[in-house]
Give the backbone structure.
Amino acid sequence: MHYNAIVTTDSELFVRMTFIVVRNRAPVYRSGHTMAFIKALAVLPFLGFLVGVLFLNRVTPLVLGLPLLMAWLILWILLTSAIMAVIYFTDPANRRSDTDT
Amino acid sequence: MSAALLIIALTALAALLLGLRAGRGRDMNLEQWTVGGRGFGAVFVFLLMAGEIYTTFTFLGGSGYAYGHGGPAYYILAYGCLAYVISYWMLPPIWRYARQHRLVSQPDYFATKYDSPAVGVLVAVVGIVAMVPYLVLQFKGLGIIVATASYGAIPSSVAVWIGAGVVTAYVMVSGVHGSAWTAVAKDVLILAVAVFLGLYLPIHLYGGFGTMFSAIQEAKPSFLALPPKGESIAWFDSTVLLTALGFYMWPHSFGSVFTARREKAFRQNAIVMPLYQLILAFVFFVGFAAVLKVPGLTGPQIDLALFRLSIQAFDPWFVGVIGAAGVLTALVPGSMIMMTTATLLANNIYRPLNGTASDQAVSRLARRLVPIVALVAVYFTLSGGQTIVALLLMGYSFVTQLFPALVMSLHRNNPLSSTAVFAGIVVGIATVAATSLTHTTIAILFPGLPEALRDLNIGIVALVLNVLTLAVVSVITRRVPSTSSA
């Protein structure tokens, strides 16, 4: 089997789903101002990981059974992914046609 | 032959066959061999990049670090995420430029961007010096895993030879295609094993996560947070930041960027890769579970925590499955590093020195260098002592020195001259080497600093000197009217 074919289907499917989500949720084109604001969200993981530690360097109280600091960092792993998803789905660069450039 | 050994042997054989088969039906020129003809979709790029991160160092070192150091191990959770945030904007322009100029390696990028073969050779040397200890570490981990999981039946030196042989064979034949396919097998296995161990051991041994962490907190108060001194908050922040910047500066990570067919792959990866970091949390759970159950491991022995606990808790056949996962975490990154090192030697050191070398000659040479790279790594693995870990940390600081010149190269009007880049990298590297070899710390350099800053990672100093050199030399060289800027 030629694996490139499989991969193409997978990533293409992902891109299609992306388009469906973007079209359904964001029919109005965002202004450059809004885009800049959304991209600024990328600063949050840096604050969460680097500044958050200053205030949450504790073991107790355990959160969901985990040490507080560890739970905080895991929360930020999830938030980082969510933030990058928001950026991805609103970034016009990803709305261009499927061609390479 | 024990059940454990049989499973490990079959896995190694399967990896070999999968790797050999992966390159079939392709004309293996250098572009195909080292960057997969730039034809990998998002899923493969993801697996390659993830494959490079989940190495034996994560599997054994991650659990070992949690076991031996406690809270400071959390830094491994954080730096990857920040690197992925940066990658969303950093990797697409690198990929576009590389495709436009048909580049196959990291030194190619620097040499072309700064229009300076000398910068290319320097970047290649830095990369090779940083990668060899990384490869040695994979082989060392492989030896430990096989020796432990075979209950001593196979000495680690034999395991190292066999492992090196397997990787050499499939890298020579299939190049990056072999790595990508074995990465698929590896990721499935490591994901399953890490999540299972991370859930099962705390519940089985302690009755749950809350009880396990409460018990550790009682026995070793504050072990699960950052200490006030040493690996403190200042250490955590500076180390996370430095490693996040250095993350994609490893030549093999940088090179895997070139395998993508579309630039979107990187933006998609920036969403998924952070979630992949969660595997590390499960690896940490294993290390923490070992704290009270297999106490007394110190120094380099902490890396054995995962296996010591597993041997206590499981039947030999399952120890074999864990061992097989461990072996794959050594083979996949090992193959990427070997291939990249050979490519750098042939394409970025040999070729610039022999201007007439044809593409075919370079391609042939790269493949022939693979066994030589493997032999060098095996030699260091079997002869080297603990200095390897010191070398690896030095390697990380080395590649981080490439970051400022790289970021500036993405600017349309890059003010840096090639001379400045050369000087900045040299100054950065020299500082890293000097401070590492003499074990200098910020506390030694600046004894007057407040406590909070004394624990800053020494790599910051090298990076600051590097940036200052870039700035100063750029200003000086620009005043000379005869130099044409790139």
In short: Confidence is low (pLDDT under 50) at residues 482-486 of chain B. The CA atoms of residues 417 and 478 of chain B lie 8 Å apart.
